[in-house]
Amino acid sequence: MAEIKLIDKNTDFTKLKMELMKWDTYSNKEYYDVYRIENHFHSIGGKWGNNNYWASPRGEKPTYDNLIEFSGVICSWGMRFYESNFIKTKWNETEMNDIVKFEITRNDKIFYDFIVRDIEYGIAKARKIMIEIHEHPIPFNEQNFEKQIVGRKIKWMDKPSVIESYSINWNLIVVPDGWDIREYRHYEGGEESISEDLFDNSIDWFRD
What we know:
This protein is mainly beta. Helix content is 8%, strand content 39%. It has one helix at residues 119-135, and strands at residues 18-20, 25-27, 30-37, 53-57, 68-69, 77-90, 93-106, 109-116, 153-156, 159-166, 171-176, 194-197, 203-204. Strands 1, 2, 3, 4 and 5 form a five-stranded antiparallel beta sheet that branches. A hairpin with a 2-residue loop joins strand 2 (25-27) and strand 3 (30-37). The radius of gyration is 23 Å and the shape is extended.
């Protein structure tokens, strides 16, 4: 059975077995490295069970002075939305309509956004996206997750393809891998890639 054993001034760091996690942990505008330190449990029970995770400022060597007990979230996600009006003129008629912009945030930065006309629909869509984020084959909670997107072999519309680039506000650029883009898109002579939504159903993230 695990027992509480804290890091203290007498801890010999040369003998600690420490595993650096890949998590992109963030708090109060600062990033942290999180370590699993063998046999050094600071709490038992609750969400983390026998908890031997410790955090220190990103890039700093762990010491007694900078390690803190970690029981938080491995990456900070959020959702916010804004109602606004826009004015448009068409066929000499001018009108004001409403829109709602939703933003999914990751460590206080916009990760994904979309616009809808109805708040309730937007909330439902945002919740669905949050579930997809946590179940996605790309580990969005990790540092440098983008490196597992760019260059990844996928299927787009069941056709072998490769992700050429990714921008943080959800957009993917997909290129065909061994087939002609004109098979699926109107071709105007210069377009050789597909702009696609990160969570679009057209993408199969697993390709042999």
